[in-house]
Amino acid sequence: MYKDVAKARAFKMIDEGATREEVACYLGVNKRTIYRWLAARRALSQPCPKPVSSTGEEKGMHMDSEELYAPPRSGPLSGLEPSQIENLLLRAVLADLKAEGRVPASISNRSKCELGERLRLATGLPLRSIIGFLKISKSSYEYHRARLGTDKYADLRKEVRALFESSDRTFGYRRIWAMLKRGGVKVSEKVVRRIMRDGKMFVVRANAPKKYCSYKGEITDAPKDLVKRNFHADAPDALWLTDMTEFALPSGKKVYLNPVIDVFDGAPISWRIGTRPTKELSEGSLEQAISKMLPGSHPTIHSDRGVHYRTPSWIAICEEVGITRSMSRKGCCADNSACEGFFGRLKTEFFYGRCWSGVSVKEFMDRLDAYLCYYRDERIKQSLGWLSPKEYREALGYTV
Asked: What's residue 75's pLDDT?
């Protein structure tokens, strides 16, 4: 059963102009409860009950309203009535709760102390008025006030910052949390997220420019789409994806990448990098993937309808080793979305939002190659149990 003090507070807030929704939010009760209280008051035609304090509460928590909200002798509130001061405090709490997104009934004593210190600074009210209004004992208030200046996550903040910078600002809070867990640090994901938000550790985001298109028309018959967007494989070398993408440098030069992605773990198992989108890139990456293929494997390789995957030499390489070809439908990039997603992650983490002015084509290609090696050998993935593709294969007994 609700205390009379809660009803009294509800009636006072409503009489001073607060809405039923605001009162319900402040008290942490259902809106219908507020309506029932109001109906009962109208039926009985009684004035709102006086607050009744709990036993054992300290001085300042069982004072009447006139004494509790007595205006200070000096300061911005010196000329106000006690009811005006109480109303001001109520609105300050409601504004604080809306900003923080919390329910009043769930406010911790530490949060009450933080709010109380802000109110004391802004209003000049004595401590007894603040603790009486916030319904917190003086001993609890002083306990938390003595600890407001300490940061129990000081060491963790440094470690999170180091991990974030070592990832070249590409790791979000989930990967940072996973790296901490691997290092033996037990902490909540929410704590890591809050630390990163407070420290302005935001992953680089940028809008992608118009991408390179290798489609040159229906120059040969296209094989059917055998994948049908089911990008899943139970073993390595069962389903491969391939495509070509472009990197436009500030110097006006362009670099092209053609990888082969194994759907089993999402790893780039081979790639070729060059300054022209030629068939040497596509066929070179395919031949490199074939050289690493497990004995007895006959993968399906899925691509878009680009010209590089329809040449006689490409078809001959596939037929020679028993690779089954599969192609997306015309103009339907979603049919190869897993490979497009790889390019999106690659460019977000490696390319977009970074200054490439003064970087030569050779240096860029070397750095891109190093990142692809990192992606394959070291970059952890949640879908792999926070292991890298290399670690995942080793854990399952596959030779890397």
From this structure: 53
